[in-house]
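does this look right to u?? 6-O-phosphono-alpha-D-fructofuranose version
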Amino acid sequence: MVMTDAAIPALTDVVSQSAPAELVADGLLTVLEAIAAGAKRVDGLTRRAALAGMLGDTGETNVQGEIVQVLDAAGTDAFVSALRDCGAVAALACEELEEAVFVSDAADHPYLVMFDPVDGSSNIDVAVTIGSIFAIYRRTDDAPVTDAALLRPGREQCAAAYVVYGSSTVMVVATEGRVDGFTLDPASGEFLHSHDQIQIPAKCAAYSVNEGNQGNWHPEMQAAVSALRADYGLRYVGSLVADFHRDLLKGGIFLYPGDVKSPGGKLRLGYEANPLCYVAEQAGGAGSTGTERILDVQPQQLHQRTPLIVGNADVVERVTTILSESAS
Ligand code: P6P
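got this back:
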C-alpha cells in the first residue's frame, strides 16, 4: 500500500526518536534542519540549472586548485549561511573555503560541521547526479574553537549526512548504529522517510572505479582491481555521492586509490571520505585507505586528500588483503 505523503513521517520526526537523546537535546536536529534547508536551495537551483544561470564556471580557482563552478559558489553560500545562522554550530569547514568559519564559542553551539557543498559539480552542465556531504562532530569541551578542533579522526563523528540530487533528491542521515533516507517531496518541501534503517546488502553487486586511471595504479592496485573485474560488473558515474549511494543500497565497492600521479588520492578526508565511511560503517560496510581504516586517520590539515576504498566490508577486506600481499 502506498502511504499518502501526510502519513509518511518527516526527517525531524524520525531522527528525534532514533538519534541518541543527548544529541537531540543538544541541537542535532537544528543542524540537520539547516542542512535540509541548504539542500532544498541546491535542489531548486540544480533542477533549473540552465534556466537559473547555474551552468559553467565562475573563472575562480579554489583551495583545491579546481575551477569553481557557478553551482559550487551558490551551494557554498546556501550551506554556509544555513549552518552559520542555525544557532547550534560553533565552526564549519567547507571544501570551497581555504579557512574554517568560526561562528561562536558559546556552550549552546556544540556542533562542528565539515562539508562538501556540491560534489561532482562539473557534472551539472550535463544533468548528471551530484551531491552534498557532511561530517558532524560535537565539541569535546567549551574551550574556544580552533582549527585543531576540526582536525579529528572520523571515528569521533556523532553523525554524518549526504544529499544525492538524482532522479529524486534523497538526504541520508547516519547516527550511531542507524542510517535512514529521506526523499524530498516537491509538493510539501519536506524530506519524508523513504528508506528505513538502511543496511548495505550482503552481496556486492558492482565495483566502481575510474578504469581510465589504470595506467597510473601501482601493481598491487592493478592486481586488486583485476580480481574485482573478474567477479563484478563495473558501474561508475563519476560523481562520488551517486556511486556511493548506489553501492549503499545495492551492495558494491567504490575505489579512488592513490596512484603514481596522485599518491595521496584525489578525494578529501574531512568532508568526503570520513562522512561517507561513517555512513558505510553504520550500515554494516567498511572504509579503508588501503592500509588503514579511514575513520582512524588523524587529519593533519583541513583539506588533505586520501585514497578511498568503501563499500561491502568483506570486499573491502579482500582488496586490502590483495594490496598487502601483492606489495610485500
Ligand atoms: P575522476 C567529482 O569531480 C569528484 O570529486 C567525485 O565526485 C568523483 O568521485 C571524482 O571526482 C571523479 O574523479 O578523476 O574519475 O573524474
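The domain at 206-327 is CATH 3.40.190.80 (D-Maltodextrin-Binding Protein; domain 2). idk if thats expected tbh
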